[in-house]
Amino acid sequence: MNPQKRETLKRLLEDRVVIVARGLPPEVLLKIGEALVTGGLGCLEITLDSPDGVRTIERLTRTFGDRLVVGAGTVLDEKAGRAAVDGGARFLVSPGRIPGARGLGGDGATVLIPGAFTPREILDAVHEGADLVKVFPISLGGPRYLAELRGPLPHIHLMVTGGVTPESALEYLRRGAAIVGIGRAVLEDQAIARGDFVAITERAAALRRSLAGV
Fold first, then answer.
1. Which of 16, 45, 92, 147 has its CA 20 to 30 A from that of 7?
2. Is 188 considered catalytic here?
3. Spelled out in words, what is the top-level CATH class assigned to the domain 3-209?
4. pTM to 2 decimals?
């Protein structure tokens, strides 16, 4: 395995939380990056429907280096995925299949996390080269559904997103999720609107503490 991919996977699986930022401008995302790192969280997904998403990934990577593992989300086509990889994204996330997935990693350095929901879709994703599989939207099935999936698929690392809160994150991890993806429950709209990034740091730190015993 490529050393960078190995290190990225290690960080993702150790942190167990990816914060998902959608539709936010670059300057706000730089402040969010600092708030998350200060609060003890080190993995951030920038969705490519955000303004200047790829350029923001470049800036975050340059600014924070290894303190923050930055990836691209909502990767809907191969062109977008390649642009994100070229911009420094260390992982790619999609709500479904990642077109051209096998070639997107270039030298194999990029972690691929396509989306799926059913056991067949999860297995198809693995056969197509997934390193992790995102179960989305997990809110349709909840923790019990995740536990059922884990029964026949204990060898596959699953990331759950879609309506996950700091409170439910604990239960998903207990039921077998490798990683939880959380967005507005940490990146709270009102805090961002008033420029209160201390509140984001506090939310990040509280989440980190709550998951420490899992």
1. 147
2. no
3. alpha beta
4. 0.95
